[in-house]
Structures are given as structure tokens and as C-alpha cells.
Design a protein that fits this description.
The protein is α+β, with helices and mostly antiparallel strands. It has 10 helices and 4 strands. It has helices spanning 17-20, 25-44, 102-105, 109-119, 123-133, 154-159, 168-185, 190-199, 201-206, 215-234, and strands spanning 12-14, 52-56, 62-65, 74-77.
């Protein structure tokens, strides 16, 4: 689920008498209308892709919010999971990239194909990420502590149950699943998903769902996109 950190004032409240006793038919219709207004509010506020929670505070006031509350609560609108079926690929300036021969790419072709099927991704995209992240070197390690073909950080590996980050198959599976989830978070916008893979999804969100102004990330996105186009043409 995409994380949201909207201020609590964006929550909606209603009088507790609507939920603390049996409602008349008229009140039920009012309650349904209120939920419709809530959904409209969520869409306008850009939070329609989040769960909507309902809880009653100690003063008996019922609150609806996209921020998961503590204690007792009820999910009244649940986020619908998406499948990364159509990736949005926007035109990017052509970037000069080093060419990796078919022989080099074939070293992990079996593992990449398996991960692509599991994650519903284009194998050429996984190849493109690996080309930039590690240059097909399974022993690659960054100064930040990312390792392996898809340069998994310890936190990312733990999130996707990767026991051995150095193992090529596990590394590719974990990285591919992470990339798939990023595409879901950013509505299949490949540029934003790649920026998040490099800089973290929080950074992309912090800059208003734009590529963060980091020198490395600004160079990273078009480089992966260039490899992706190159491998798609040659596949």
C-alpha cells in the first residue's frame, strides 16, 4: 500500500449518535450519503488508493481517516491491489551506455526469466536494472551497503524474505518484486519507479511524486531507460 502522511485534519468526523445506537431508515441513508462524500473527498485529496479507517474516540466522536489508527477501528474502504499490467514509458533523452553482449546477459537469463514471470515484469527491464546496478557482477557492493546483481539493501532484502543477498537467484527475485511493488505504488510510471528504486520511495513522494534532485538519481533513470529500450529492440 502506498504510505500516506496526511495531517489528521484531513480526517472526517460525524456525530456519534449515527453509530452508537440503532439508526432509522432516514439516518441510514444519511450515513450512506456521508460515505459517498467521504469517497469523493478521498479521490479529490489523492488518497483513494489508501484504506479508509473508521474509529470512535473517547468522546464518542466517529472519525474517518486514511491514517491507520491505533486501538479498535474498522476498515470501511479497502484499497484494491493492482497488477502492473501496463507500464507507462515516457520518452527520455538518449543516454550513452556500455553495451553488454548476449553472452554476458545469458549468464543469469534463467533466473531473470523466472523472476520476470513471478513479478509480471518484462525480462528486458530486469536486465536493464542489473546492467546499471551491478554490470552483471554478483559480487558488486556499494558504499551504502547494497549488494548483488540488483544491489539489495539489508532492509529491502528483509522485506522480501531474501535470506542470502549474495545469491544471484534470491537477489534477482527480491529486486524484481521490489520493482514490481514500486510500479504499483507509482501507477506504473516507470520513471518514478526507477527513481524510487535508486533513491527510495519516500524520496520520490517527498518531492511530490517527481524524480528527486539527486545527481545520482537524475543520471540513473535515463540510463536504465536507455538499456531497457536497447534490450527490448534486441529481444
Amino acid at each position: 500500500m502506498r504510505p500516506y502522511r496526511y495531517h489528521a485534519t484531513q480526517s472526517l468526523t460525524l456525530d456519534s449518535r449515527w453509530t452508537s445506537r440503532a439508526m432509522s431508515d432516514g439516518e441510514r441513508w444519511c450515513y450512506r450519503i456521508f460515505l459517498l462524500i467521504l469517497l469523493t473527498f478521498a479521490m479529490c485529496a489523492g488518497i483513494a488508493k489508501a484504506d479508509i479507517y473508521r474509529y470512535v474516540n473517547s468522546n464518542g466522536v466517529t472519525t474517518f481517516t486514511n491514517i491507520k489508527p491505533s486501538g479498535n477501528f474498522q476498515v470501511v474502504i479497502r484499497e484494491q491491489p493492482k497488477v502492473a499490467s501496463k507500464i507507462i514509458v515516457l520518452d527520455e533523452p538518449t543516454t550513452q551506455v556500455r553495451g553488454y553482449t548476449g553472452q554476458v546477459r545469458s549468464r543469469y537469463a534463467r533466473q531473470i526469466l523466472a523472476a520476470a514471470k513471478t513479478s509480471n515484469l518484462d525480462p528486458a527491464l530486469i536486465h536493464a536494472v542489473i546492467s546499471v546496478e551491478s554490470g552483471y557482477n554478483p559480487r558488486a557492493r556499494s558504499r551504502a551497503g547494497a549488494v548483488g546483481l540488483m544491489q539489495l539493501m539489508p532492509e529491502t532484502a528483509a522485506r522480501y524474505n531474501v535470506a542470502n543477498r549474495w545469491d544471484p537467484e534470491q537477489n534477482i527475485q527480491g529486486g524484481s518484486r521490489y520493482l514490481r511493488d514500486l510500479l504499483q505504488i507509482f501507477d506504473n510510471d516507470l520513471r518514478l519507479a526507477l527513481a524510487a528504486y535508486n533513491a527510495g520511495e519516500e524520496a520520490v513522494m517527498r518531492y511530490g511524486n517527481r524524480i528527486p534532485p539527486y545527481r545520482e538519481t537524475i543520471a540513473y533513470v535515463p540510463k536504465v531507460m536507455t538499456y531497457y529500450r536497447k534490450y527490448r529492440i534486441n529481444s
